[in-house]
Amino acid sequence: MNLGDPKMDKYEVGSEKYKETSPVQERRSVHFILYTFPFLLACLLFAPTLNFPLMYDTLLHTQLADGQTILSVFRPNELFGFYRPLVFLPIVVFQNLLGRYPVFLFHLINVVTHGLNAALVARLIWRISENKWQSLAAGLLFATFPFAYQALAIYGNNPYLTATFFILLGLNVSAQRRGWLPLIFLLGVLVHETAVLLVPFVLLLNVLTERTDGRSLYQTALASLKTHTPLLMTCAVYLAIYPFLPRGGGPQLDFGGNALGPKLLLFLQTAAWPFVLALAQLFSGRSAILLGFALLGGWVVYKRWRAPSATLILGVAWFLLASILIGATLPTYYIQDGARLLYPGGVGVALIWAALIYQKDQSGFQNLTGLISILCVLGIILAGGWFNRRMINLYSMGSQPLNVLNDVVTDTEPDAVMLVNMPQWVAWPDQVFPAGTEFAPVLGSHLFAVELVRANTGQTPEIIVLDVPE
User: Are strands 416-420 and 462-466 parallel, antiparallel or unpaired?
Assistant: First the structure.
């Protein structure tokens, strides 16, 4: 088999070839490149976050986990608006084992999880298309997805990383290890509710890979439902039980209502971000987004009509379902300030662009088209990497005073600490993308000043917060 120039497309042929493909049969050198390169790029890109303190949403999680045991975290918490016990489990385990919170280890978990996700994206596309260039492109594009920075900078946003990990893991094992899918689903939804997307994605992937010329779409879909009955039953039980769990509502501040327009612009910008980033230099914000998405939409329609691709279909469906789930359940202001919410849908964006740039039978440097494709992927990777590093540097600037505070408290063990004008120590940067708020405040008086010191230093001096007018 020519790994770079496959003879058949899985979407057209069906399942026999799909089932026969196994990691044992594939070349180890191809594996190393396809899976290791995206993993390493993701880890290197976000390595600076390893020096970050615990901040922002992490402090909410450490406060809720305080005094909990490994068993009690699985009981619904009325102070928390969701049932996500596996979010608190690592915090409780490390606190019980070490007597403190291992700040470096928490951030390392974030970085490694993102790296694994990038590798799993590449593996998934390899199993669908057997095109090593499309697979590698998808993994690298997700590794540098520009709106991943918030999920990586703050350990409290780890649920978005981990839920995406379980979705990708389930899809990667769905052909040979479908018996594991109910367990993977449960682990995913016990981290974050977005893991419910595993169910429609598994069904869609099964239809794309199992359909043959002799079976209609209806027959294939019906067979897919029967094949994954255990997963569907597990999902049904979870959805039936979840509304009745005793969960708190949690404080929700309304900073801008729930208008549909800003949400839609943000999602369109996310899908077409390479076009939007370039067009924003020439057009106003709304015009850049609409024109960028129009270019992307036209390209998708043309590609779908000319060369049907399982990767493209899965990518479009992934992005649409992830965006609908977020947009239908969260208010506009929350989405605009929460780049972390875009992380799960980023997989779909990476798949779309990889499928558009690389056709099913396209290779690397063999012709001008291949060279142009490589340059396109490289340009998008550099743009995404630059933006992520820019945002990580801003978070680093915002947390520098906290690092000084941690050093002072650790070295001197004071009886009291006074924090003057704590809420914000870094100026708001200029926007790069037209829609959304790119830099959310790192610290704030509403983010538990006492917990800020306790979680990072392990000490509990008296905390005095003082606001002095400028």
Answer: parallel
Which distant-in-sequence residues (6+ apart) come within 8 Å of 416 by Cβ? 461, 462, 463, 464
* d(C-alpha 136, C-alpha 97), whole Å: 39
Supply the pTM of this predicted model.
0.86
The dihedrals phi and psi of 38, each to the nearest 5 degrees, come to: -60, -40
Q: What are phi and psi of 67, to 5 degrees?
A: 85, 0
Could you count the other beta carbons within 10 Å of the beta carbon of residue 351? 30
pLDDT tens-place string over residues 89-121: 999 998 888 888 888 999 999 999 999 999 999
Q: Is the dihedral of CA 440, 446, 450, 454 positive or negative?
A: negative
Helix (H, G, I), strand (E, B) or coil at 464: strand
User: Which residue type does 307 have?
Assistant: A
Q: What is the pLDDT of residue 386?
A: 95
* 278 neighbors 376 (Cβ within 8 angstroms): no
Please give the Cα distance from 302 to 299 (Å, whole number).
5
Q: Give, for 3, the enclosing helix (H) or strand (E).
A: none
H/E stretch holding 195: none
Biggest CA–CA distance in the chain, Å, is 77
Neighbours of 94 (CB within 10 A): 17
For range 428-455, the mean pLDDT: 72
Query: Are 127 and 158 contacting, i.e. CB atoms less than 8 angstroms apart?
Result: no
Cα(306)–Cα(301) distance, integer angstroms: 9
Q: DSSP alpha helices (H): ranges in 215-284?
A: 217-227, 229-241, 260-271, 273-279
Say how many residues make up the chain. Answer: 470
What's the pLDDT at 344?
95
Within 13 Å and on the Cβ side, how many CA atoms surround 439?
Answer: 24
Alpha helices, H only, 156-244: 158-173, 181-189, 198-210, 217-227, 229-241
Residues contacting 272, CB < 8 A, separation 6+: 289, 292, 293, 295, 296
Lowest-confidence pick of 25-29, 210-214, 433-437:
25-29
Q: Which two tokens stand for residue 267?
A: 């999602």
Of the candidates 297, 251, 280, 306, which has an alpha carbon nearest to the alpha carbon of residue 79? 251
Q: Which of 256, 36, 275 is nearest to 146 (CA)?
A: 275
Phi/psi for 288 (5° steps) reads: -65, -40
Q: How far apart are CA 343 and CA 106, in angstroms?
A: 19
For helices 132-143 and 368-412, what crossing angle results, to 10°?
A: 30
Nearest to 324 by CA among 249, 256, 264, 262: 264
